[in-house]
Amino acid sequence: MTAVAPGAQASQPSKVPIATKKAMRVRKSMGAKAGLLLSVSKAARMAKTMGMTKRMSPKAAVAVTAAAECVMNDIFGLILATLEKEKKAQIAPRHVKDAIGNDNDLEQMFKDTQFCGAGVVTPPLQNIVKKGGKQPRGVKKPAKKVTKIATKRKSAVPKKKVPAE
For 39, 117, 146, 159, which has the most beta carbons within 10 A of its beta carbon? Predict the structure, then answer.
């Protein structure tokens, strides 16, 4: 054993208080643990404030957030495809509406949703006449059907029926 100088204490390993051990741990959010980009706690809070539910378990909050993130990824993928096709660099509300309209599942999900500033989406018609009265290239005019309809002209005043006696 080593000799200790008089009046000095033997060196003992210092005990770290429990509070500082907890502080040294790196805290991870529920979203980070699940590998999500959206905030799980905000999604749970929004569900409660919007009146969807009074109580929500942490696992349910993670599942709801993951579903919302999945839908958003699908929408953004379709928007990027639309932007590349139109050779645009900025996302406009019209691009969001077009992207959702091109996917059957998303269109059914957002069928009653109105997008501000997106305009009206009309289905493409082949027989649309361009300005100037010219048909688009490759579109033939529909053949007109000629039918004769025989109509009898009735008098303006209907005849009164005489009741039989």
Answer: 39
Contact 121, 101 (CB under 8 A): yes
Which tens digits make up the pLDDT trace of 80-108? Answer: 998 998 898 898 888 888 888 888 899 89
The residues, any chain, with a CB within 8 Å of residue 75's CB and separated by 6 or more, are: 96, 99, 100, 106
DSSP state at residue 152: P
- Tell me the C-alpha distance between 69 and 156, whole Å: 68
How confident is the model over 103-160, as pLDDT tens digits?
A: 889 989 888 888 888 877 565 555 555 555 666 666 666 666 666 555 555 555 566 6
Residue tagged 């208080």 (tokens): 17
Rounded to the nearest 5°, which phi and psi values hold at 141?
-70, 140
| Cβ–Cβ under 8 Å, residues 129 and 135 | yes
SS3 of 81-99: the string is HHHHHHCCCCCCHHHHHHH
H or E, element range at 75? helix 58-86
- 8 A C-beta contact, residue 78 and residue 100: yes
